[in-house]
Amino acid sequence: MKNIISIFFFLSMIGIAIGFYFKSGDELLGNKIIGASVSFMVFVFMPLFIYHRWKGKKLSDYTFSNENLNKMKAKSSKSNK
Known about the structure:
Layout: H1 2-23, H2 27-54, H3 66-80
């Protein structure tokens, strides 16, 4: 999965660079290539990246709930003593 994400990232960056290269000659074609590369990053690369990074983690560990607030208060009272 990590290799696929890396390949998609570099393909997107290469696509954007090629788009800027073509933009100097044919502006419409360059804008289409840049737009396609950015769309690929938004709709393919980012969801895969987010899924890969959040796989196996609990969302409840990163939200403010009464249980987590009590844990934070207990840790801060221990560090103040």
